[in-house]
Amino acid sequence: MALSRLRHPVILRAPSLLRDRRLLAAAPSTFRSLHHVFEALNQIPDVDATSLRPLHFRLLSGVHGMPSKLQNGVRYFSSAEAPLHTEVAMPALSPTMTQGNIAKWRKKEGDKIEVGDILCEIETDKATLEFECLEEGFLAKILVPEGTKDVPVGQAIAITVEEADDIQKVPATVGGASEVKNLVSSQTDSAPEASPANISSSELPPHLVLDMPALSPTMNQGNIAKWRKKEGYKIEVGDILCEIETDKATLEFESLEEGFLAKILAPEGSKDVAVGQPIAITVEDENDIEAVRTSSSSNNVVKEEKSVPHDSPAEIRKTTGFNRISPAAKILIMEHGLDASSIPASGPRGTLLKGDVLAALKSGKGSTNISAIKKATPSPQVYQQATPTELLGLKSDGQQKDAYEDLPNSQIRKVIAARLLESKQSTPHLYLSTDVILDPLLSFRKELKEKYYVKVSVNDIVIKVVATALRNVPEANAYWDAGKGEVVLCDSVDISVAVATEKGLMTPIIRNADQKSLSSISAEIKELAGKARAGKLKPNEFQGGTFSISNLGMFPVDRFCAIINPPQAGIIAVGRGNKVVEPVVGADGVEKPAVVNKMSLTLSADHRVFDGKVGGAFVSALSSNFSDIKRLLL
Predict the structure, then answer these.
(1) Looking at residue 403, what is its pLDDT?
(2) Based on CB atoms within 10 Å of each CB, which residue in 40, 175, 278, 348 is the most buried?
(3) Is the pTM higher than 0.85?
(4) What kind and span of H or E run contains 571?
(5) How far, in Å, are 86, 108, 411 from residue 142 at the CA level?
């Protein structure tokens, strides 16, 4: 399809290039190794493909000097000043990639390269990937050096030639080398905090800067939970350098190179370290460790996040009291009985704000009040003349103690809060509830334990029941594709189970739950729940899932409504079981009152995926599975 879209514009712009044999004969080396579309030319009207030598369409756009952004990152150019060469551009290695970092060059200038050889390692917005060469030749010039950050997709990063003799003939101006130098120098001049660009490379021995990695697709910052290796330690490939708390879990960061940990740039306990920010420096030679430490210390590689107190006009103004007071601040002062004269004002023109009073309450700087505030509000002129104490009718007597305590939020809880808010705001929630009789389930569970010595929990059986219902109603095992504006059915039934941890709610996944036995589900959920509570879940163990279950049956919660976990379209909220009296038809066909165990199920569904028919069918399938629990064995 892509070839058909490209074919005709190229032919229309260059009819003589394709039809003139003399042009082809005059430049045989131009088309030497390009042979991928010969058969496609036979289908082009008005072209005698038999009279042509094999061509590569990527070459045509370059011959005409038409810069084109290619998926594989290769552009071709020829000029009178330089030999025939290939300009290798920063490729788009993921759908969301707009820029990348050159992590490492695998080939050096002058090296021979074959098709499939790894040119360099590129750090994208997802991971560090290898960039393969698509043409054979020689690497003539590296335009973007190793370690360069934020190189836009499509920017030239290297020059290759077909002949080794052409390497020296490539001029320095080819490929926008000056622009690349400017890019590198600008990065050095405007380096962010904790960036090694502050260190002169001439002062340092060969070293490698380790950046905060993106350990999950949604991660944009992380916390350094623990350093497993200390400065000066020997590190091997695969060694765990540190533990990083992401928006999902606490994951281990493995070393990809051997050497020595020379300098830790982000100390243990650092919060909200941006992805791509340097966290450590490694060297190959143990003797180079001290040089890196000395140089990094003298050049202030890592700046302390603690702000240095200094006098400012605002702070000077704070010490002089206030000229005005906001209504909210006045109410707080009256409620807590504070001495307004002891509270610094930070608002414009000396206005005492609500935030100033709250800060005084937290720090204990405010004083209690022993007289009532004046009922009459003075005029603006009186505000400017009266003292702060006279203005409010307050006197100083004692200190106000802190009435609350701020608890720091974990990275996981911050992300959960943002996702839940986004879900409620952007997803139309449909709620369907039903009560199911638990007695068949409890009897079945007891039978498994007594006869077959298989111990499963109620939650394990609920997982199997929900998975079977999703298999029976495949329209419910789907999600909404906002880009296409349509429902997409999922191939497998993957159940996300909510597990409460100290750091927040995690949702490990039981893959293909409809195909697994109860004992297998029970063993797997125990293992995953243990990993979740220990913060050891791997990304593939909690990312994905087609449907979620949230069970509060162990608490005195009869029923509740859960919030959908995007991009999923449904979640079942499971309440506790209760004994109720209701009419039951006996063996003789007569209704009699009986005590039964009932449990509430509430479905929260994306109304774009679940209409009334799909939602009703799914709830009906759930009820059928609970009433005839042994069908789960089929």
Answers:
(1) 67
(2) 175
(3) no
(4) strand 570-585
(5) 12, 8, 39
**Do residues 294 and 199 touch, judged by C-beta distance below 8 A?**
no
Pair 493, 477: CB distance under 8 Å? yes
Residue 92 and residue 153: Cα distance in Å, rounded?
6
Q: What is the mean pLDDT of the chain?
A: 75
| Cα dihedral value 149, 154, 157, 158, nearest 10 | 170
User: d(Cα 565, Cα 545) in Å, to the nearest integer?
Assistant: 10
Q: Sign of torsion, CA 451 453 458 459?
A: negative
pLDDT exceeds cutoff 50 at 81: yes
Q: By three-state DSSP, how is residue 228 classified?
A: coil
| Contact predicate 212/273, CB 8 Å | yes
Answer yes or no: 611 catalytic. yes
* Number of other residues whose CB lies within 10 A of the CB of residue 363: 12
Catalytic residue among 20, 481, 611, 628: 611
Burial of 247 (0-12, 13-18, 19+ CB in 10 A): buried
Among candidate residues 117, 239, 435, 607, the one labeled active-site is 607
Give the Å distances, CA to CA, from 107 to 90, 118, 146, 624: 16, 8, 11, 63
Q: Tell me if residue 606 is catalytic.
A: no
Rounded alpha-carbon distances, angstroms, from residue 281 to 230, 237, 493, 553: 12, 15, 44, 50
Return the structure tokens found at 598. 């009932």
Of 593, 224, 633, whose CA–CA distance to 465 is shortest? 633
Determine the pLDDT at residue 418.
Answer: 87
**Token match 């579309």: residue?**
37
